[in-house]
Amino acid sequence: MARYCYSSYKLFLLIFFVSLFFSDSVAQTISVSGKITASRFPVKKAKITFVNSSDTTVQFSSFTDDNGNYRIDIVTSVESDFTIPSSFSLGQSYPNPFSSSAAIPYGLHKESDVKVTIYDVLGRVVRKFNVGRQNVGSHNILWDGRNGVGQKVANGIYFYKLEAGGESQVKKMIFNQNGSGLVPLPSGFTFEKLNKNSAVLESDEYSVRIGNGYDTMPYVIEEEYGTVNLKNDTTINFAVSYLPTASVNTENKRQIIRGYGAANIVQWRADMTDSEIETAFGTGDGQLGFSILRIRIQPQSSLWSTNVPTAKKAHEMGVTIVASPWSPPASMKTNNNLVGGELREDAYDDYAAHLNSFVEYMASQGVPVYAVSVQNEPDITVTYESCDWNADQMIKFLRENAPDVGTKVMAPESYQFRRELSDPILNDSLACANLDILAGHIYGGGLAPYPLAEEKGKEIWMTEHLTGSDNQVSPNSWTEAFPVAEEINDVMKSGMSAYIWWYIVRFYGPISDGEFNSGKKGEITKKGYVMSQFSRFIRPGFYRVESETAPFLSNFDVTAYQDPQTKKLVIVAINSSDSQKEYVIRINENVSSFTTYTTSANKNCEMGNNATVSDGKLFFSMEPKSITTFISN
Q: Which fold has domain 85-183?
């Protein structure tokens, strides 16, 4: 690894040592740099400490940056009248000014709960670190120059305040992100034995300890490495053992969650029974906890009444009702047929009135419809009830007719969330203003973040998908069900606010219809239990919050959610490997324990033992190919 070019910085470092720690002192230093990796991936914010063999109280520490790189300057001799503070102390951040990250060093003379807060010059809070309880000794934390929502702060002066044991101190720091990219990583120093008028270390041999800081990713299995001789500037790389690690930061909100659900399409399938309705929308043990019901807007208004029984019961249970048309009435179409064709241009007003009539009818029956789609899958050719729309036609309807529908409007509900159909809508100011929900399906494509929709402030909903309909031998096998856990996880990470399956009651759905060896009619299937790991515990109005997993190829993933009212935190973890694995989650929230529920090959949303959080870390073991939901107590 090439050595850093840093002569000017080395001079600054020497001056820094002298001014911060000593008066009338002289120091000699050796620079050590390198990289720390875990399974070839860089370890972020790992703590590396060089311990002198002749005097183990003489230690020099640093942290890796986001690329796993570190650099430490080892003081080999010093003359000083330096004495160790015996009280609570806050050191100057280092380096200062800084361009990428800075260490904030502090000393504790008694065990204390520690909090560090960053303020701008106007006294506004920029970032909070609830470090938790720490022992007596020297410590430090890293600040990467980002605020609580992950954005880089502006260049300028900032203040950092340390609170511990009923005491507090404040110091100033300078951020300049235009500084040299070669500024090394921040360091913290311990000089317990260098408190004499002169000191020359008796040995140039050091052991190396690699461990965890406040936010090391992934979590390192702490280890001490054998002796190394340090006589000249050198580069040393380390490979460490680790636990796959997730971090959860509730300060950084992502999308609002509207819910999870599925469709009940009467005429095409039998209506749901009262027992199936309770199973689908109840939130207790042995229930799915669905909070969204999707229904069909039939072309014939005489059939609308068939939607009412199930939709009304669901609404009374607090469920959100959305509706999609598969075709306008045949009389409004270019081919006078319910299959294919297009909506005639002179019938746009009539079609808007048709949709509005459905909304008004359902409301008169005690079923408010939250949102209506313009068209189900306007972009594919099929042999069943359908209608073709292109982007220009969809834009025209949204611009001129959407306000007449009488409720929120969803579009375009394309088959694969095709951007060529939705991007033009988002880029048309009036059509976009009249669009409430950007909706789409993910049949073979479209499952990805949508920055343009987020930029326009639109909620993104996944309103239909199914898998396993061609498996009529073992539709409820774990092999069929487990990928649904990964899919919902990916939908949430893509920034979508809703996940809606196809039929609720079907042999390949969450509740069995009794066909094709799918179980007894009305029973929850394996897919259903997987869905309930999200739908029972992540309720409408929750927000997804920031989560990160490292290494990213570890067959481990996590999404996290929080109720903004109660602050209840829900974490969903997925082990995609074929073996039992140990994991750790770092949590910024002050949570002491979680209730757990697991679905695996042998468990069906089964409640497990409470999981305890220690020092902001949750350690746990997961079964092969399993999903566990953690609900904060």
A: Immunoglobulin-like (2.60.40)
